[in-house]
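[SOLVED] Need 3D model of a two-part complex

Original post:
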Amino acid sequence: MKQITSILLLFLCIQLVSAQDYFPKNDGVKEENNNFTAFTNTTIFITPTQKIDNGTLLIQKGKVVASGKSVTIPKNTVVIDLQGKFIYPSFIDPYTGFGVEKPERAEGRGRSPQYEPSREGFYWNDHIMPENAAINSFKYNKKDADEFRKAGFGVVNTHIMDGIARGTGVLVALNDDDGDATRIIEDASGQYFSFSKSVASRQSYPGSLMGAMALLRQMYHDADWYAKGNVTTKDRSLEALIKNRSLTSFIEAGNKGNDLRADNIGDKFSIDYVIVGGGDEYEMIDKIKATNARYIIPINFKDAFDVSDPYMANYISLEDMRAWNQGPMNPKVLADNGITFSLTTHDLKKPSEFSEKLKKALEYGLDKTKALEALTTVPAQLLGKSDLIGSLQPGRFANFLITSGDVFDKETTLYENWVQGAKNVINDKDQKDIRGSYNLSAGGKIYDMNLSGEASKPKIEVSIGDVKYPSKIEYTSNWVTFSFTDDTSKEVYRATAVIPKEGTNFSGKLVLPNGLEATFMASRKGAAVAEEEAKKDTSEESKIEIVPLTYPNVGYGFTTKPRQQDMLFKNATVWTSEAAGVLTETDVLVKNGKISKIGKNLSAGGALVVDATGKHLTAGVIDEHSHIAALSINESGHNSSAEVSIEDVVDPEDIDIYRNLAGGVTSIQILHGSANPIGGRSAIIKLKWGEEADGLIYKNSPKFIKFALGENVKQSNWSSFERFPQTRMGVEQLYVNYFNRAKEYDAKKKSGQAFRYDEELEVLAEILNGERFISCHSYVQSEINMLMKVAERFNFRVNTFTHILEGYKVADKMAAHGVGGSTFSDWWAYKYEVNDAIPYNATIMSSQGVTVAINSDDGEMSRRLNQEAAKSVKYGGMTEEEAWKMVTINPAKLLHLDDRVGSIKEGKDADLVLWSDNPLSVYAKAEKTLIEGTVYFDLAEDIAKRNAISAERNKLMKLMLNEKNGGGKTRPPKKEDKIHFTCETIN
Amino acid sequence: MKKVKQFSIAIALCAGFAISAQQTPGPDQKEAITISGATAHIGNGAVIENAVLVFENGKITAIGGANTPSKGRVINAQGKHLYPGFIAPATSLGLVEVGAVRASDDQDELGDFIPNIRSIIAYNAESKVVESLRPNGVLVAQVAPQGGTISGTSSIVQFDAWNWEDAAVKLDDGIHLNWPNSFRRGRWWMGEERGWSPNKDYTKDIDAIKHFIANAKAYGNSKSASENEGFKNMKGLFDGSQKLYIYAHGEKELIDAVTAAKESGVQEVVIVGGYEAYKIIPFLKQHNVPVLVRHTHQLPLMADDDYDLPYKLPKLLVDGGLLVALQNSSTSGFQTRNLPFYAGQMVGQGMDKETALQLISGNAAKILGLDNYGTLETGKSATLFISEGDALDMRTNQLTKAFVDGREISLETHQTELWKRYMEKYSRD
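Solution:
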C-alpha cells in the first residue's frame, strides 16, 4: 500500500515558475506561463490565526497573489474547486541537516591524544569552523525532500551539523522541479553553534562541556580582538565569524540545562541565540522563560519501556519513566508560558515520525493554533523570512498544504503539498471516498464487506455472520484491489475494480481460487462500522494521566520545595567546633535561617521545638574536595585549563546530593579534576536539594581553582607521551611559565594598553593578585615543596594542598608557608606516589600547626566523613573535638567560609545536623540535616519518599504495560550510565 | 567529652622507634599465655565480661569467667576488649601491591575458565598492604584470583608468615565464579549504545558455565587419557571439599546462579555480593546458601534505592535468617583494614553489636569452612587480639596485643614507622 502511494506521487509540473530569463535555452523555445491558479471554495488558514471559510487562494509564478474571502479571479486562471477541503501554509523546519553530508569521523592516530590543530590559517581549534558555509557543499536531495513533504514541510533550514562553531546555513524550499537558483531562499540563513566537538578532528580540546563553553567565550573575545585589527596573521575562521555577525545565531543546546548555559554565553556577548532545546524544558520552565530566548524544540518523545520482565524493569529509574510520561507536555508548557518556539523534526529518526509525535503533544494539550504557529509563522520569523514564508499572505511563496480537514486531526488526509507553486501529490484528493458497508456477492456467496479507516487508505473486513475472512485492500488512482481468504479451505479470492464517478456500488473482476475469472458486485448498505480500535483510542485520550513534577524531577525530589523554618533544638549535646567546645544539655535556636541563640532553657517563641535529648547537634559537614553534582570534572585537552569553571556545569539533580545530605553534608567544593597542572575553577555549593544550579552556588563565593601535581598531570599511568610535562621538573617550569605570562598580561592590562582578553590568564592573574585561591592535588613531599617555592617567588600563598598524603613530611614547611592540608583519612596503595601515604598524616600535620581538613574525593566516602574524621582519633590519638573540626570549621577556614558556616555560633548560617549518637561514632546516623534553617533531609520524610517512589514506579509501570497491550511502541529497559566522578575521571 | 589521647603520647611512643620490629614473623608460642580481665567478644554472639582466656601451643585451651584458672604468662587486660582475629573473605590481598603499578599486579590471569589458576602461588606474605591490616585486627583472609568467568582457586592465609606455604591455613578452598549480568553496560567502543540494557548473550553465557561445570564433573568420573588441569581443579566442588563462590548481584542472576550450580552437582555454594539477595531470602534459605555481602561502604547501585541500602543489606539478610559475612573484593585491598568498621556500620542500622561482630569473625569462618578460626572457643587457634576499646568503632579500635596461632605479632607497620620517624623529626629542635 505504502509503495503504491509513493509511486503515485506525481509531480505534476505546472510550469508556473519561469527559468532565469537571461539563460540561453537550446532544448526548445522560450515561453512563459503567466497564468494564475485559483483554489476556491476552501477553508484557508492565511496565518494560524486568520482562518477564512469558503475562501480563495490565488497564485501565480510560485507566489501568492491574493488570498481571502473575496478574491478577484483574472480570466487567465486555472480554477481548482476545493469544496470541503482545507488549505494551510506548509510547515517549515528550521533545524535539519538536509542536503548536507555530515563529515566523516576522523581516524585514530596512535594512542596519544592530539593536542594541536590539523589546519593552518584558521582558528587554533579545529572545532571552531565559522568559515564553513553549507551552501558550498549543499546538494539537493529529492528523496529526503519527498520525506519532508509527506510530513507537511515545504521549507527546511539546513547546515553542517558538526563542530562547536559550524558556519552558515541554507534555507531551501523543497521544490524538486526548479534548480537551486529558485529553491534556495537564503544561502546564509544564520550562524550555527553547539557544545559538541567535530567528529572530523581528534584535537582533544575541549574534552568537556565546560571546555566547550570556555572555547566559545574565548572565540568571541578573539573575534573582537581580531576585528579591531590587532592580529597580524590571517585567521579565516575569525574573519568569517566577524563577517557573519549580523546573522542570527542558532545554538544546539540539547537539554534544559544547556539551554541556560547557551543563554548565559549569549548574554555575555550580546547575542540573542535561537536555542535548539532538548524537550525537557518543562522541568524548569521558569528559568527557561526568564532567558527570553526563542527556541527550536524537538519532539522526540520517548517510547514506553517494555516492563513485562519485572527483573529488567527494576533497572529503569523513576526519572526515566517520568520522562516518558511527562515529556509530551513540553510543547504545551512552553506555549502556556508564552515562550516563542518553533518545532522541528531534529532528533527524530525520520520526518515521517513527526505527525505521530505532534499528535501526542496535542493530546497532551498543546493548542492547535500554537502548534500551527510553531510550524509556520514562528520558524519564518526565527529565520527572518516572514515576508516570504510561513503564511499565505500576498507576496509569500505559494507553499501550502491541501488537506481533507483540520490538519492536526487523526482522520485527516494530506492530499497535496505545493512548494513554490509546484504541486506535489501526497494522496489523490479526487479519489472517491468508498468507506461504507457493502453486500459483496462473489463466487456465489454474499459476504458483508466493511471499508473503514482513512478515506485514502481504507481498511477492509470481510465476513459472513460470525465467520471472518482475512482480507487486504489497496486503493489508489481510483482502482480498488482486494483479496480475502476462506479460512477453512485456505482458498484466496482476488478482486479488482475501477470506482465509478457516479453511484455508490462498484463491480469488477473476481479471480477464483481455481484461476477462473468471474465478476463480483459490491452494493453499499450504509456507513462504515467504526473500528473497535478507534473507539478505544478516543476513550484513552480523555484520561491521560501525568504524574506531578518534583524538585528536582527525579526520585527523592520534593513535591513542594522545603521552606525555611524557625526551630529550637532542646537539650542536645552541641558540638560547637568553636572554643566553647562540646556543650551538654544545651538548646540551639534557629531563626530566619541563622543560628540565633545557644544556651540553656531557651524559649521557643514561635519556633518549632525539636526534642534533641540524647542526640548530638553539630554544624553541617563540609567536604573540601568533592566531585558530585557536576556534569564534567576534567578538561584534559590542555595542560592548563584555568578558563573552565565547574560553576558552568553544576548538576542540581545528582542523587548523590541527597545521599550526602543523608550523611550530614551541607557544603562542598566541587573541584576540577587532576588531569592538568593548572585545572579549572571550583564551584562551592550548598546541597540545597530541589534548587536549581544557581541556587546551590554560594552567593559571593570565594574564588578557587584546582591545581594538580604528580602522576596524573605527568600522565604516568596511561599511554600519553606527547604532552608537556612528563616529569615533576616539567611541572615546575609549566607553573613558572604560566605565572610569568599572567604577570605580563596583568601588567599590560593595568597599564591601560589594549590587550587581548584571555580568560585563562585573567584567572591566573587573579591568583597573583590574591583574589583567587589554589587548592592543589598533591602527594609527594618534593612537589609540595616545589609549589610553595613557586608561589613564594610570585608573592602569593598556596591556600590548600588537597590529598597532600606526604604532607606529614613537610608539615613544618607548610605551617611556615601558611598553607592548609585537606587529606584522606586512610587511603594509600592505589598508585606509586602514595606508597608513603599514612593514616597518621592528618594528626601529624595538625600537630605542627597546619589547618587540616578530611576530604572525600568520592561521592560515597563523603556521606560518612564523620567516620573518616574519627579515624584520626585512632591514628595518632587526636582528640575528638579536634577531629570533628576537621570536617566542619577547618574546611570552612580553608574555603574562606568560616565567617558564614562550619561551627555552631550565633549569627552563622543554620547549617546543622542532628545525629543519633556521638557524630564521630561509626554507630551515629544523621537524623535531620538543615541548610539555612531549611530541613533538606529528615529520616522520617525519607521513609515517606521511599514509599512514594515505590507507588509511583508501580503506577508508571502499569501505564506502560497498558501502552504495550494497547499496541503502543515500546523499547527495552535501560539504565543511564551514571558516572561517579573522582579526580581521575576523564570525561 | 572524653579526651582520648594527647600528642605527647605519640611522641612518647617514638622512644621505641629505633627497634623497627616490623613484619618479622613472631616466634612460636613456647609457654602458656593467659589473658585476663577483658571483655571477651567470642564471635558467635556471646560476650564474657571479666574473662579469662588461656592458650597453649597456638590453641585456646580455656575460656571462661573470672574464676577460670590462669596458666603461664598472664596478660592483664582489665577494662580492655578481647576479640578473635577478624577474617576477610574473597579478597585479592597479597596479589597486588600498588593498584596503578602493573608490575606489582598479579590478580588477573588471561582466560575465561581457569580454575587451575591458584592464588596461593602468587600470594606475597611480605606485602606491606597485608601488614597494614594487622593493627586493625584483621588477621586472616581468603585470597582469590580476579577477573574472567571462573577466575581461579582461592586459599586462606593468616597474616604472620615468611612465605606462602607458611601463610596457608587452608589450601585451594574454593573456586571463584563471576556470574554474567542479565543487564549490562553498553560496550560503546564496540558500537553499542551507552548506558545499561538487557544482555542478549546472557543465556549463552550461562550455558557456557554449565557446559564447563558438566565437563569438569564428567572428567572426574573416569581416568582420562590426557590431563586437564582446569577440570581436575574443580573436583572438590562435587564432593563438597571445595566451595563455589559465585559473584552475583541481581535477583535474577542470583536465582539462575544458585539453580545452575545446584543442578550441576555443586555441593557447597556461597554467594558473593548479593546486592538484591534481600528480595529472595526464602529461596536462598531453602537452598542453604550463605552470602558474603559486599562491604557496606558503597553507594546504592540504582538511583531510586534507599540511600542506606548498602549499609543495612547485611542486617536485612541476617534478620531473614541467612548466614552472612562481609567482604570487600570490589575495592582496593588496602581498604580491607576497615573491615571492623563495615561491621560497625551495621550497629547504626539497629543490629546488635555481637551479631555485627559475627559478620567478620564466626560467620566468616563458618562460610569459608574454616573450623579453627573465627571464635574464641576452646580448641580453636589462638588468633586473637586485645583492643583498648570497642574494636568496631574507629575511635576505640586501638590494638595493644595481637596473636596469630599463638605467636605474638608486631603491630608496627611501614606506616607506624613513618609516623614515628616524622614525629621524632618534629620533636628535635
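Edit: Chain B has two domains: 23-85+375-411, 86-373.
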